[in-house]
Amino acid sequence: MILIIDDDAAIRTSLTLLFKTEGFWVKSASSATEAMRILGEETPEIILLDLNFSIETSGVEGMQLLREIRVLHPHVPVIIITGWGTIDLAVEGMKLGASDFITKPWQNQHLLQSVETALELYTQRLAAQPSEKPLPASRRKLEAQFNFDNIVGQDAQLLEILETVGRVAPTNAPILITGESGTGKELIAEAIHLNSKRKKHPFVKVNLGGISSTLFESELFGHVRGAFTDAKTDRAGRFEMADRGTIFLDEIGELDLASQVKLLRVLQERTFEALGSSKSRTVDVRVICATNRHLEDMVAKGTFREDLFYRINLISIHLPALRERPGDIPLLAEYFVKNLKEIYQRPNLRLSPAATRWMKSLVVPGNIRQLKNIVERTVLLSTNEVLEIEDFQRNINPAPKSVSQNKLPEVGTITLEEMEEQMIRRAMDFHQNHVSKVARSLGITRFALYRRLEKYGITYESDDV
Q1: At the N or C end, where does the chain have fewer CB atoms within 10 A?
Q2: What is the 8-class DSSP label of residue 53?
Q3: Cα–Cα distance measured from residue 436 to residue 197, given in angstroms and rounded to the nearest whole number
């Protein structure tokens, strides 16, 4: 049963018809008193709550009712329906335990998705209640249920994360993935997509740290011909490309406040306008975000919008650093060796038993990405088919050596890729993150530089003009 609480008869009627058409049993209440009477007699599966009743417009009545609902039915999902003027209040409602907030006027499909997601998550919580915290399923059992082909590891923390991924993937819940650089956030995002109902539709990746604020709208929402000097043709943005699929917004903590506002609007209304166009377009996407920054601290400092934080954070998944699951290091190393022996046509390549055991104590602050680089560098520089501890020790470079102004590093102490990364970082520092000047000094185009900034995870704050 869905309980609709709103003083506006037209809204109650509209919502009742919408949900009855979708096969739901619906009850409605026009006041807090009527709502509490119904809630005292029955337990709804979900509640749609307006924040204002009668002539009251402050939202105080709605917030008080939400508190009372939480005491009476602490686990029943509540979706707040609000106008733009009370979004700050809606965020307060999220802090009190509301599942989502929908702005008026709403889109029926978006509202139905929000209700469906809340119900699916509520059902999962009810199913998990009998035991306080079930043990993680085995890796074999998870693989029988889900597609986790590209994720390597058997650590209990990882298995618990994969269980969560398996549960939430079929929903449309927005997900925030956190963790240090190199922990595999993109792989988890892709696993969510591959195990979702949207898997046959696009999975679009966007590194927000590699997009300047001046290009933000064009990249995410597209542009029409003539929108700016270089706009020779119409161009679809990333949201349009991801329609009916999933969009993965990596490094969301790097967005400036102005861009955060623009992103928030499309996430709330599911509509956007291409740059240079006044025509609104509707989009149906599942949003997954990732960051290696502490967004809660940024919210407290005022550098990240609180309403955006709650919009992207219905489900949060934190990935542990590799040092927190050392038993998975040998498994990952063997996985990389297996791939590399095919790439470099060395069919007899393998790790020695001693090297496999030694891997567990390997210090890799750069996590999985750094481990992959260490293994590949060792494969490239070693002539042995069986890789021993000494092969890795000779080729491990814990802290990349800085390139001196007048002296190049010795051959074998640094890869070409590392030299490129260091040169780009030096140029970014020298030109104070001015992308156009950096690109000119390196002899490449701005777009080629953006690709490299994304590749190496290099971020910058100042605008490119």
Answers
A1: C
A2: -
A3: 41
Q: What is the DSSP string of 294-327?
A: -HHHHHHHTSS-HHHHHHH-SEEEEPPPGGG-GG
Greater confidence (54 vs 217) lies with 217
Q: Which of 320, 337, 354 represents a domain boundary (last residue)?
A: 320
Examine the fold and report which residue of 277, 296, 320 is the final residue of a domain before the chain moves on. Answer: 320
CATH number of the domain bearing residue 56 = 3.40.50.2300
One-letter amino acid identity for 71? V
- Helix, coil or strand: residue 178: strand
Which two three-digit tokens encode residue 199? 């898997």
Q: Give the CATH number for residue 461.
A: 1.10.10.60
Q: Please report whether residue 137 resides in a domain.
A: no
Q: Which domain holds residue 105?
A: 2-128
User: Is 146 part of a structural domain of the chain?
Assistant: no
11 within a domain of the structure (yes/no): yes
Residue 2 identity (one-letter amino acid): I
Average pLDDT on 290-302 reads: 93
pLDDT tens digit sequence for 214-268: 889 889 999 888 777 777 788 889 999 999 999 999 999 999 999 999 999 899 8
Look at residue 133 and tell me if it is in a domain. Answer: no
pLDDT of residue 285: 95
| Cα-to-chain-centroid distance, residue 452 | 21
Question: pLDDT higher for 247 or 136?
Answer: 247
C-beta of residue 331 within 8 angstroms of C-beta of residue 153: yes
Question: In terms of domains, do 172 and 286 share one?
Answer: yes
**Is the confidence at residue 399, as pLDDT, over 50?**
no
Confidence check: pLDDT of 312 > 50: yes
Which tens digit of pLDDT belongs to each residue from 82-96?
775 566 777 888 888
The DSSP code sequence of 378-397 is HHHH---SEE-HHHHHHH--
Query: Can you name the residues that pair with 3 across neighbouring β-strands?
Result: 27, 47
Contact 362, 371 (CB under 8 A): yes
* Tally of domains in the chain: 4
Rounded Cα distance between 322 and 139, Å, is 18
Sign of CA dihedral 283, 289, 293, 295: positive
Average pLDDT, the chain: 86
Report cis status (omega within 30 of 0) of the bond before 105: yes
Instruction: Copy the structure tokens of residue 279.
Output: 């025509």
Please indicate, yes or no, whether residues 298 and 342 belong to a single structural domain of this protein.
Answer: no
Q: What is the rounded average pLDDT of the residues 28-57?
A: 85
The reply to whether 449 and 380 lie within a common domain is: no
CA–CA distance, 176 with 312 (Å, rounded to integer): 6
Which residue, 39, 35, 67, 48, is CA-closest to 2?
A: 48
Answer yes or no: do 207 and 165 share one domain. Answer: yes
pTM, full prediction = 0.77
